[in-house]
Write a structure and sequence with these properties.
Helix content: 25-40%
Shape: globular
Largest sheet: 4 strands, antiparallel
CATH topology of the largest domain: Alpha-Beta Plaits
CATH class of the largest domain: Alpha Beta
Oligomer: single chain
Strand order of the largest sheet: 2-3-1-4
Strand content: 15-25%
Radius of gyration: 16 Å
CATH architecture of the largest domain: 2-Layer Sandwich
Number of strands: 8
Number of helices: 7
Distance between the termini: 16 Å
Amino acid sequence: MPRYIAFLRAINVGGHVVKMNRLRELFEALSLADVETFIASGNVIFESSAKNTAGLEARIEERLAEALGYEVAAFLRTDDEVTAMARYQPFRDEFVKKAGAFVVGFLHKPLDKTAEKVLRGFKSDIDDFHLHNREIYWLCKKRQSESKFSNAAFEKALHSRSTFRGMNTIKNLAKKLGK
């Protein structure tokens, strides 16, 4: 059975606190197998025989909204996709080592040309971006708090949902997955 990772938006941020055992229970209630969480920021590993990933994302989002009382976006990736992200090098190593932050943003679908242009508009002296598949790689040369870019600014500009994770989280998740 395929293994997926759900990257959830709005879990344990902005005053929304969800215990990881509760999150596991909600996923198990959807008949998903071998459910486990990875750090307390809304990363859930599970197995599912579902063939329609978009439909599965929608089922997860609907269940979480119903149970938690607020909207939670779910971005599913396979274990192979997470491993590929961990190995992907969109920026030169010397820039990554000096950066204040290196993060990955998850999207439901790749950005179209208009949305890519909007994202390029966020590029600055401290922020650089790279698109690959359904991910945005963001390199912030200073602290993220010094940047004009944020998930909220991105979502507002594009009217699209996303969630971001640090590259170290992605690499540690790939190690956990044994890939």
